[in-house]
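Moderator note: this is an archived Q&A kept for reference. The question asked for a predicted structure of one protein chain; the sequence and the answer are reproduced below.
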Amino acid sequence: MTVLFIGTQELLIIALVVLLLFGGTQIPKLMRGLGKGVKSFKDGLDGKDEEEIKEEKKE
């Protein structure tokens, strides 16, 4: 079984490919959507439902 280690060069190549595919204007939108998805996932793990989240935002 091989463990996947990603070095600096690989990360730079991946970043360059993402930049070429999505362009400079689409990357912030992509990251914003990813962040919302991660937050939603964490809230789901904590057992929070949508109503509790809305109440927290109001306060």
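Archived answer notes: Helices lie at 8-46, 50-58.
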